[in-house]
Write a structure and sequence with these properties.
Two copies of one chain form a homodimer. Chain A has 307 residues and is α+β, with helices and mostly antiparallel strands. Chain A has a single domain, classed as Glutamine Phosphoribosylpyrophosphate, subunit 1, domain 1 (4-Layer Sandwich). Chain A is 32% helix and 25% strand. Chain A has eight helices and 14 strands. In chain A, strands 1, 2, 3, 4, 5, 6, 7, 13 and 14 form a nine-stranded mixed sheet that branches. A four-stranded antiparallel sheet of chain A has the order 9-10-11-12. In chain A, α1 packs antiparallel against α2, α2 runs antiparallel to α3 and α7 crosses α8. The longest helix of chain A has 23 residues. Chains A and B meet through β3, β4, α4, β8 and α6 of A and β3, β4, α4, β8 and α6 of B. β8 of chain A pairs antiparallel with β4 of chain B.
């Protein structure tokens, strides 16, 4: 029985010529740390749900990635985060959107899945639920980052927003995610984001929408997306990969390539996804210059890549 | 070229023996009025988007249905509404959730689709956007209904919530929706809801989620769902019908029956959906005792039914 895990830290205009060697090392180190955390859980016989949760927690705790600690500033100078998780075994799912001050939104999404009768909770209601569940909260200052603050300042009085930003990446889709297959044959997917810089109007992207940015089904695959969220919602992208396998008879590579290089491109969307099927096969296609990504499988495969 | 429209006003435990003749007449009259409004638009060559919007507006303005004016009370004694709309021509879509005091949430969702760069807006942000767009607001009292108030009072201090309520319907899924095909071959779908009585935690159901409760694609069909929302999200129900047609080779009847009588039932979900395909064929399956529904097509078909 194969098992394995894949993760991403966002996709977009990531060019090697604009990356310093030190910065590159930091990213690779961050991805490696998160991957190892998931790999260890799976190797010990732990569940796919546990592996994707802990992997995403590691990425959320790393300020390099736009999720959790590294979340960008919204229009009000706050950090508004979305996350979702799905269990391929029973199609159970949980999601939160527009939550503030929770250290790990993915844990809050998991609590929604496991401890509520609902799938998706938003805003104050979601936060009230999180407090009731004693989900860990932190001060607003925990999320402060000088670089992200400066970039927000530069556009905060405009109507502009950015999908993510760092010095070299004017167009980087800031999302993190993980997908896994465990030794028991169960698939799971988890996705988390800090949204868009200067984001207004309580915008919800694909990351917290089951079917759009995140999906898992033991009969087919587990998928986590990163990209221009609005297009990923309109194409119901994560579920699209699963349907192309289940109903279209495609394999994971054919399905995920078709979704990223044909179907999402056709309406103008860009980004990428990571996916693992029930046999432990992993795909990580993207139609942008780069995607922070990595994977490990019991077949002896390990990759950490950016471009 | 055929064209037509279908609508629903919710599904659930609707039993003829518990319905008075007067009440039944009111429901049939309300459905008929909404259907006529859409039919007129289509007959004059108007767009499917216009037809589904105006049909849903008519249902939102009728206090019998749980959407707009007839919205139930949430845990805080307020009326928190969700709506979504999708254009099958270009896969453009708009959705709002947890909005208060907007007379017609479907119009707000349409504004999100047409006037914003986003697909889905929630809570205060969505309302700020609506005010900026001069979308019509009304006093909280506009939504007051003694029956709905009394039922909320009876459970408001508990942790219980109800999907909808009226004297005879302890289990009625309160949603309204419309799907249409216009003379130009364009499909559209619109869905709106007032949520669940005593709803807490900013719960988002399937009605405002593209792919789950609402979907339209000129290549396949337009779908609007009503039912136990959490199950409809987990099964990505509206898009499921489209995928079974596009990738599975089923026709509209086979696809919508499979989704309602097999796929959603398998995980414990109940409810129904209305759907129209690119040839003007209409299906309205449900797995509950009844569904308020109606349809009209240029082929000379007109139906208004409850059980």
């Amino acid at each position: 029985m194969n098992f394995g895990i894949a993760l991403h830290g966002g996709a977009g205009t990531i060019l090697k010529k604009e990356m310093t060697l030190d910065k590159e090392k930091e990213y690779l180190f961050g991805l490696e740390a998160a991957l190892s955390r998931g790999e260890k859980i799976l190797s010990k016989g732990g569940s796919a749900i546990e592996a994707v949760t802990e992997t995403v927690v590691e990425l959320e705790n790393n300020s390099l990635f736009n999720a959790g600690k590294g979340s960008v500033f919204n229009h009000l100078g706050k950090h508004e985060m979305d996350a979702s998780i799905m269990n391929g075994k029973d199609l159970n799912a949980g999601a939160v959107c527009c939550v503030e001050q929770f250290k790990n939104p993915i844990i809050l999404a998991k609590l929604v899945m496991e401890k509520s009768e609902h799938v998706m909770l938003t805003g104050n209601g979601a936060m009230e639920f999180g407090e009731k569940m004693n989900c860990e909260k932190v001060e607003e200052s925990y999320f402060f980052d000088q670089l992200r603050y400066d970039q927000w300042q530069s556009i905060k009085d405009s109507d502009h927003f950015q999908l993510d930003h760092s010095i070299n990446n004017p167009k980087k889709f800031g999302t993190v995610g993980a997908v896994a297959l465990d030794q028991h044959g169960n698939l799971a997917a988890a996705t988390s984001t800090g949204g868009m810089t200067n984001k207004k109007f309580g915008r919800i992207g694909d990351s917290s929408i089951i079917g759009a940015g995140n999906y898992a089904n033991n009969n087919t695959c587990a998928v986590s997306c990163t990209g221009s969220g609005e297009y990923f919602i309109r194409n119901v992208t994560a579920y699209d990969v699963s349907c192309l396998m289940e109903m279209g008879g495609l394999d994971l590579k054919e399905a995920s390539d078709k979704v990223i290089h044909e179907r999402i491109k056709k309406i103008g969307g860009d980004g990428g996804l990571i996916a693992i099927d029930k046999n432990g096969h992993i795909e990580m296609p993207f139609n942008t210059e780069g995607m922070y990504r990595g994977c490990w499988s019991s077949k002896g495969i390990k990759k950490i890549e950016i471009y």
